[in-house]
């Protein structure tokens, strides 16, 4: 089983120092007084922790158990970039994805693979799921056992028909689905995560294969001790026998899979002379929001805190204005906090008022949303519409995804880059083709949803586009409304907002 990670993934902007005097019981303390280099030692000198980390790692464990047969721990994900724009353009083609897995937990969303941000196979709280992203999640209540053994999974999608699910060579579920995926946003295949390294699979993976065909149970690579040869329909087949990225495909298409994890120096904190003591040669660590320190016990389970009581303490100095994460983690135990636990906090990031507004009148102010606003009341009556959302915006650049408003994790208005989008979450993205200028000037945008008919989008008071949409939102999973970000403070508007309004009317 995978070794434990200690002093895990640290995110947020901190000056961080950890240290306690030696006690009668076990005590592990990192004082960070090296002042330079890439390694920090605890007070005993035994436990070297790394500044930064390499998240995708090679493992000697495998389904065959043979010498030289390796697998990967894919946290951080792999990317396969297809340059001819044809190999992974599978919107109308059958797809079979298969892999051997040994999961470490069954919580949250975990991606085994994602193609073009339109097709996904993986798990939802342990249940097997195949997704037409932005259209529908096809979930079956079948889970891979958390028994520390290797298991084979396969997802077989036939466009316009449905998806068959296989576990250890046996068909265990079927979901009929006539809808088709949305247009592909790119020609990337990601393995072990989404395209950004999010929704990672926590566990060990081997023998990942993607086929452009509907395979039967007999055609799957389902025998643990024997690696089946690639088929004519096999697009990529990764056995992960290399000790590091890139990983070679054992198919006719020799496209390597490359780790997406950031460069180690880009995720390493820096030594700082700003410390609680203020004394010479006393150092702390400064984190910029994407930094981390890792200690890997290499499978010895020396730090086995799952069933033991313990105390964690630290000195920190937090700069909320520069904070980039909605939930900074300053200590995690286990694989990224999964299959273990983490200590974190949710900093207060109130929206900042700015003396700038569309009217340009004295006393008229707007806000920079920071981590967004929360309206803690029930809006469940809006699920059946109609609905109009309007606001004034001023920005120099839109992020890849921006939330202007979200209601109950069921309805969302926002942007994909500069293009407005109205979303019935988990059902459909109603996309537009026009851009809202990111020119540093104020612009008015509005979304008018007519249930069962479509959405009319407005820019600066003029109708810009109508997009038909017949679907209806899923049931509310939360009552509240968020403004300028999602419910967790993510996908924040990078600019100013004023005169935000929601109308229960067209």
Short overview:
It contains no helices and 38 strands. It is mainly β.
Q: How would you explain this protein's 3D organization?
A:
The relative contact order is 0.15. The chain contains no helices and 38 strands. It is globular. The strands form 9 sheets. It has a 7-stranded antiparallel sheet, with no helix packed on it. A 6-stranded antiparallel sheet has the order 15-14-13-8-17-18, with no helix packed on it. The N terminus is likely disordered. With 506 residues, the protein is mainly beta. Helices cover 0% and strands 40% of the residues. Strand 31 and strand 32 form a beta hairpin.
Strands, helices and their partners?
Elements: E1 5-6, E2 14-17, E3 39-41, E4 48-51, E5 57-59, E6 71-73, E7 78-81, E8 95-103, E9 109-115, E10 119-124, E11 127-132, E12 136-143, E13 151-158, E14 162-167, E15 170-176, E16 188-191, E17 203-211, E18 234-238, E19 258-259, E20 270-272, E21 284-286, E22 293-296, E23 315-318, E24 329-335, E25 338-344, E26 352-354, E27 366-368, E28 373-375, E29 387-394, E30 401-407, E31 411-416, E32 419-424, E33 428-431, E34 442-450, E35 454-459, E36 462-468, E37 481-483, E38 496-503
Antiparallel strand pairs: 1-22, 2-21, 2-23, 3-4, 4-22, 5-6, 7-16, 7-19, 8-13, 8-17, 9-10, 9-16, 10-11, 11-12, 13-14, 14-15, 17-18, 20-21, 24-25, 26-27, 28-37, 29-34, 29-38, 30-31, 30-37, 31-32, 32-33, 34-35, 35-36
């Amino acid at each position: 089983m995978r070794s434990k990670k200690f002093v895990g993934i640290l995110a947020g902007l901190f000056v961080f120092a950890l240290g306690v005097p030696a006690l009668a019981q076990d005590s592990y303390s990192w004082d960070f007084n090296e002042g330079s280099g890439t390694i920090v030692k605890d007070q005993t000198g035994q436990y070297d922790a790394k500044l930064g980390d390499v998240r995708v790692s090679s493992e000697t464990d495998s389904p065959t158990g043979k010498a030289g047969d390796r697998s990967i721990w894919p946290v951080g994900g792999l990317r396969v970039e297809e340059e001819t724009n044809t190999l992974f353009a599978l919107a109308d083609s059958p797809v079979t994805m298969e892999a051997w897995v040994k999961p470490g937990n069954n919580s949250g969303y975990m991606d085994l693979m994602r193609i073009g941000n339109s097709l996904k196979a993986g798990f939802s709280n342990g249940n097997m799921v195949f997704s037409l992203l932005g259209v529908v999640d096809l979930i079956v209540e079948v889970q891979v056992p958390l028994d520390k053994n290797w298991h084979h999974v396969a997802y077989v999608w036939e466009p316009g028909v449905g998806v068959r699910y296989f576990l250890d060579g046996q068909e265990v579920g079927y979901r009929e689905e006539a809808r088709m995926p949305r247009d592909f946003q790119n020609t990337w295949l990601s393995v072990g995560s989404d395209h950004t390294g999010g929704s990672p699979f926590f566990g060990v993976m081997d023998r990942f294969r993607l086929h452009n065909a509907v395979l039967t149970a007999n055609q799957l690579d389902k025998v643990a001790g024997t690696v089946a040869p690639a088929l004519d329909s096999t697009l990529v087949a990764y056995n992960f026998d290399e000790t590091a990225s890139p990983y070679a495909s054992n198919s006719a298409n020799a496209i390597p899979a490359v780790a997406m994890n950031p460069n180690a120096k880009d995720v390493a904190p820096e030594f700082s002379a700003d410390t609680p003591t203020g004394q010479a040669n006393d150092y702390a660590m400064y984190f910029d929001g994407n930094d981390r320190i890792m200690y890997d016990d290499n499978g010895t389970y020396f730090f086995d805190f799952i069933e033991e009581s313990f105390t964690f303490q630290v000195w920190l100095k937090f700069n909320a204005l520069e904070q980039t994460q909605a939930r900074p983690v300053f200590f995690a135990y286990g694989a990224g906090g999964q299959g273990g636990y983490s200590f974190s906090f949710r900093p207060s990031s109130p929206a900042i008022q700015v003396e700038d507004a569309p009217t340009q009148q004295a006393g008229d102010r707007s806000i920079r949303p920071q981590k967004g606003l929360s309206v803690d009341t029930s809006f469940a009556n809006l699920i059946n519409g109609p609905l109009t959302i309007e606001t004034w915006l001023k920005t120099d650049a839109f992020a890849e995804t921006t939330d202007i408003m979200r209601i109950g994790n069921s309805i969302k208005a926002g942007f994909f880059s500069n293009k407005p989008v109205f979303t019935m979450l988990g059902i459909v993205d109603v996309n537009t083709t026009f851009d809202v200028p990111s020119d540093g000037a104020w612009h008015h945008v509005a979304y008018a949803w007519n249930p069962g008919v479509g959405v009319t989008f407005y820019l600066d008071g003029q109708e810009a586009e109508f997009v038909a949409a017949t679907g209806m939102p899923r049931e509310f999973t939360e009552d509240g409304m968020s403004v300028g970000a999602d419910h967790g403070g993510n996908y924040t508007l990078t600019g100013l907002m004023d005169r935000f309004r929601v109308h229960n009317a067209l």
